[in-house]
Design brief:
single chain, 79 residues, alpha+beta, 3-stranded antiparallel beta sheet, two-stranded antiparallel ribbon
């Protein structure tokens, strides 16, 4: 597996992937115990956990979510 600036450029077949787990909106809403509309509002206001978009699909990288949650505990987050 080669990396360029942290991006995976090739994954060997049958190998354990180092790619992050991506949570759906519904998975994250259930985990945080907030309505899906809350996450929609946070994204619109550009606050809340970091997310990525693939076309119309929104996903939340688990590692970024954990960092955001840590920032919330330390009072460093807008939400």
């Amino acid at each position: 597996m080669a990396r360029i600036d942290g991006l995976v450029t090739h994954i060997e077949p049958n190998s354990k992937s180092a790619l992050p787990r991506l949570l759906t909106i519904d998975e994250l809403a259930a985990y945080l115990d907030v309505p899906r509309r809350t996450l929609d509002g946070w994204r619109a206001r550009k606050v809340g956990p970091p997310f990525v978009k693939f076309g119309k699909s929104v996903r939340y990288p688990e590692h970024a979510l954990l960092r955001w949650m840590d920032a919330c505990m330390n009072g460093d987050s807008d939400v």
